[in-house]
Write a structure and sequence with these properties.
CATH superfamily: Phosphatidic acid phosphatase type 2/haloperoxidase
Strand order of the largest sheet: 1-2
CATH class: Mainly Alpha
Largest sheet: 2 strands, antiparallel
Distance between the termini: 25 Å
Number of helices: 12
CATH architecture: Up-down Bundle
Number of domains: 1
CATH topology: Vanadium-containing Chloroperoxidase, domain 1
């Protein structure tokens, strides 16, 4: 998760519903960390030690590794398909390219102009969610599927980078699952669709041939742990309140219905 996003966001007047946090500058300038990342909400706090609560990845020859091998092999037929292309699109976590990922599930278009608080919320939480995987990644340094099976990946430009970046757990999938949880808290009436999209997002990493099934299963624990820690951050909570107000506004546009139908059909190819 080293390739990521940059954006400078503008302020909207918000947070009338939480006067005790009006002094928090939820959309002010945020330092960049490199690789397009900006500081997360948890920057400066002790990092989440994912190696302390995740089990070790499957050992070679184990039943769990055999299940990983079978799941990986079953998805190889999708190379070159619309689902393969969707996996490549899902892999791009730069901003604003990443904003449409959950748009259909959310029923709202996310943009810096229309939903600046939600845009910032996703951008900053991405850092917290993704970096939470690195203690376990470094501890295990698991080889990615394409290094084992020798097959193509859906993002060939990233191949060299991914060769040295541990597979377990999946950073992208932790971000996707964490976003699904955040958005479900903002729009609980859309929770089923959002969580389904979070799972499909993790599935994209398997379709892309860059993660094993167990990598993407472990990400759910990491994403949930980082999400839980965010609940105690005042700036995160203030931004959540502002984002919730944005989503309730009549001015927020809906994603294209036909495009959403096509996305649903494409995602179903890997079920």
């Amino acid at each position: 998760m080293k390739k990521l996003f940059s954006a400078t966001l503008m302020l909207g007047a918000l947070a009338a519903c939480q006067p005790q946090e009006q002094s928090l500058d939820i959309l002010g300038p945020v330092p960049e960390l490199g690789h397009g990342l900006i500081e997360g909400y948890l920057y400066g706090e002790p990092p989440l030690n994912s190696a302390a609560f995740l089990p070790a990845p499957p050992s070679q020859g184990s039943a769990r590794q055999q299940a990983d091998d079978a799941a990986s092999e079953a998805l190889r037929s999708l190379e070159g398909s619309a689902r393969w292309d969707q996996a490549a699109s899902d892999a791009d976590l730069h901003f604003p390219a990443a904003t449409p990922i959950f748009a259909c599930a959310l029923g709202a278009t996310v943009s810096e102009a229309q939903t600046p608080a939600l845009y910032r919320l996703l951008q900053r939480s991405l850092t917290d969610l993704g970096l939470a995987t690195y203690a376990a990644k470094k501890a295990h340094q698991r080889a990615r599927p394409f290094l084992v099976n020798g097959e193509a990946i859906c993002t060939p430009d990233e191949r060299e980078l991914l060769e040295t970046d541990g597979s377990y757990p999946s950073g992208h999938s932790a971000i996707g699952w964490g976003w699904a949880l955040i958005l479900s808290q903002l729009a609980p009436e859309r929770a089923e669709a959002l969580l389904a999209r979070g799972r499909a997002y993790a599935r994209s990493r398997m379709v892309c041939n860059v993660h094993w099934m167990s990598d993407t299963e472990a990400d759910m624990a990491v994403g949930a742990a980082a999400f839980a820690r965010l609940q105690n951050n005042k700036l995160f909570k203030a931004t959540m309140a502002a984002a919730r107000a944005e989503l309730s506004s009549a001015s927020v546009s809906s994603p294209d219905a036909e495009a959403c139908e096509q996305e649903a059909a494409t995602l179903a190819l890997s079920d």
